[in-house]
User: Fold these one by one.
Assistant:
Number 1:
Amino acid sequence: MKIYIQRAKQEKNYPELVQGYRDATFYSNDKRLKIKYADSAVATAHKTDDKELISTVYLLKGSLYYFYYKNYQSALAEYLKAYQYSKDNKDDYLKYKIIYQMGLVKSYLGYYNEGIEHFNECISYFEPKAKGNSHRNIIYNSTKGYLNSLHQIAVCYRNIKDYRKADSIIDAGLRFSKIDEFPSEKAYLTKCKGISVYHHKDYNSAITLLQKSLPVFNKEDDFYWASVADFYIGKSYLGLGKEDLAIQQFEKVDSTFQKRQFIVPEILGNYNFLIKYYHNQKDSEKELEYSKKLLKADSILNRDYKYLSEKIHKDYDTQILEESKTKLETRNKWGLGTIVILITILLIVALLAWKFYKNGKQIKLKYLELENNLIQQNQQTSLSYESVSIYANSVLSEDIFNDLQNKLKEFETNKGFKENGLTIDRLANILNTNKYYLSQYINDVKGVNFSKYLSTLRINYITKLMYEDPYYLQLKVQGLADECGIGSRQNFSDLFQEINGIRPADFVRQRKKEMEGQGGILGALS
């Protein structure tokens, strides 16, 4: 490899030199050297003025940061550079590799529906090539792209709790004829299958499948998925009532976090289990230790999320929209004189009209579904102490459980959630309780974390007002946000759509139509 690089340097054959550095990143065992070789590839590629080549090496460098370091900030910076240089190239394979990497970032940020769109595009591109009769290198690369896209889209579907769709995708991947030739991709899908059967409460099978995937993750130093697998093995042991084995797994996950300084929201609950276990053991030193680690993990996530979310939407999504707009304007300016463009425009208009009609039907269905939920809200019943999980019973005594249930019921009845800027620490003080007990109760009984619990209360409250009282249909979005305790107009709109499945403006529009039919009044939302 060094001889190849040296010869290319002497000959000033920059494309060959770039290839030499790229090969070196693959064959080097030292991940620090991999980044150095990638830096050299980038510097050399710029000497060629070949935008496609430059885009390729930036994508390579970003992938190294992602896979070997899980450094999303550095990875995204490189992906965005790759995207900038890829705009005018005709290499579809490169284009879909970038789409895939952007999907990874969006999935990590929790934008699962956007991630699904990215991975669906990749599957549509890679699947035919993986199953076709192309050159073996194309088939190999396309198969990896196809299987990895299946894995990531299954992760997204699982996180939005569409387990049926996730299971179908996982099974399709594991049935793929060449799956045994791709041990890494098979391990990812096996891990997904393990988490899936955990959700179906088949804990023994979950442990077997997850343990089967771990050797591959450990061999490849993929600590991201190794941590997730270890976490779900621990939860499976809890489901079997083997608390000591579960705690060993959770401490293993913590050890990985301390070493790598990397964690994902999915396994943040690892610390809740450890904190409550040592609280129950009356080991205040350990309880405090893991409480501090939880705060540290949370701060790392908040730091990454703020940066990544702003960066990907400002530098990637917005640019794509602007480019689409520019291309459409150029097409209209220069192409209106040709029959082909006229036909194309007519087809586009027809497609948009169909999409508009379909979207209108979807909005109406979502509204009817939401209306039905609003009617049934008053029919909800409280969960008894005996109905919660075995682990929750071991952490929360019946007295604490009942006390929290009564206090939260009073908090909800009195609309205490309307307080702007309310935090779990503040609520714990108001309720005169421990914030970790409060968090455990909300996680187990309500089935969500504190932030989602608070957001759901606020959105359900304002939605019911909008449904029952025409006055609230006259308010602007900021007025609605203020009424339910949400400070930001944008945050309110995002939460309203996330929880209700429909935008505030669409809800108001549908409600007004319904009221017109009932002799109701009209208003405006701006």
Number 2:
Amino acid sequence: MKKYTFIIACIFICWTTACKKLDVPPINIIQDKDVFTSTGGIQAYMARIYSQLPIEDFRYSPQRGLNFFWIISPFPAVTGEALSRDQTGAMQENVDESPWGDSYKLIRDVNYFLENMPKYAATYTPEQVNAWLGEARFIRAATYFALAKRYGGVPIIDKVLQVPAANVDDLNVARSSEEAVYDYIAADLDYAYTNMGETNQLGRANKYVAAGFKSRAMLYAGSIAKYNQVTLVDAAGNRVCGIPATKAVSYFKAAYDAAVLLENKYTLYKNGWKAGDKAAQYQNYVDMFFDKGSSENIFVRQYHYPESVHGYDAYNVPRQLMGANGYSSEVNPTLNFVEMFDGLPKNADGTIKTMTAGKYDLYTNTMDLFANAEPRLRATVILPGDVFKGQSIEIRRGIYTGSSAGGISPLLPAGSTANYPTANIVQSSNATQTPYNLPGGGTLNPAGLSGVFSGDGTCAISGFSVRKWLAPDKPTSEVLENRSDQTWIELRYAEVLLNRAEAAYELNTAGQNDKNYLQDAFADINQIRERAGADMLASAANLNSIDIVRKERRKELGFENKTWWDMRRWRIADKEQNSTIYKILMPFYSANDKKYFFDSRTDERNARYTFDVRWYYEQIPNGEIQKSQKLIQNPGY
């Protein structure tokens, strides 16, 4: 019992912070023998270093950094997946909140464990020792990956650096090449896979977690080798930014092989799934994020009220369900994201069809437009009029009072960035709406309970609210800042399948013929699409573009904080965000028709997103550059 009390206390210390991250106390407060001679001490040490893993979860935002107590500028708002009331343009991570320093503190703690724990190996079985060492190397690899995907080549520190050092040059470590860092990550993960067991405590790594992370990291390295155009070579000839294109195939093959290791070890979650039953498929997808026994979960970060919490629900519920804090609708999915899904009426160019012959299509209910959409969309995005927590989510932009004889013409010219006209449209200037008296009796609030109020950002500013991750049964009284405790799923089997499919497609494109990689990618994608209720690909021949693989990835992993890194490794962020204004979909009620129509347009705030190509490699904190003559800055800073 004492052991578990110690572990819980350690986790509590690590996770409970005020509005800044808590400094880790010096590791010599407790003597090594007190830690390394008991399984309780080792588990407590592990709990502490796991809590510091640089994971972009519920408590991450580019502006605030990792593990922050409250969040603004949520991660999906930099990808085009969503609009945020607190952000109106693209941004890089805040250098002042850089993970550089925290990552190297964690690496030092891991290195300390690797150097000192074996001194007490006689206390344990060889299997226990090897498993713990493998676990520590997994944490080190994951931390170096967090650095590499941001900065490229970084200093590789594989031992505890003594401060003060006998020789100051021991602390003056140059950046390794980007290729060398990824090879170092791979070596650590291979060691972890070989030495760890097949199972572990929930929230801790096992050998298949290591393999899954390797599939992710090697896929990233392969993408950099193939698509990156930025190069930086230091005075010693190390290519600290960029990987030779000739290495792309070997990295894609490593990603593919690592993903295959998880086959038959994890499966896609289909506990409530039924073929042809959209309602069951929708519910299954919702349940997947809350079933702690899910066969799909590979690596998770646990929360538990009150000792470790986050505020996801408070920031993201529709306005009509917000709690006493008065926050809501921070993440508002864009129409660009919604249009990726199957089953929507589409124009020839793939955009959503809301008009026929220049006149708006009319619908009895707002959900009619989405009646045939793949269930995964409803489980990811709250659509206008859909039901959440037993309430129909009212999202309107206004009430159209004009004549509809001959159809309703566009409210604005195509491509207009102007405000909606006031003639023939009743709109709300604030949340306290004046009900409109409808012809024939009855009243209607112009924006509904969660729709757009002019000047009020705590509403569905895109016409949609996020659905994924929202707790379906949390009472409104508990929808408060730092009151949520749903588990963050950092790695699930769907991502591993998508890693495998993408690596296989890239290998096929590169002419690798040791196996039928295209057929493999096709099978992987169809597994994902079947569970999602999407249209199945008829044959491998239909998988004729890398964009099909990428689109499937963006749909499946939307709002899981993976898309930003995908856009960066594919080197497409600067193309997608080139003075871009993302699209929204505004529902209007036609008073005379007693029906709805939808207006597709760009964000009313005219928020433009432009990605600076420098951001593919982030700025190393200047304070770190000034500490070492060997540490060079990334290009453009």
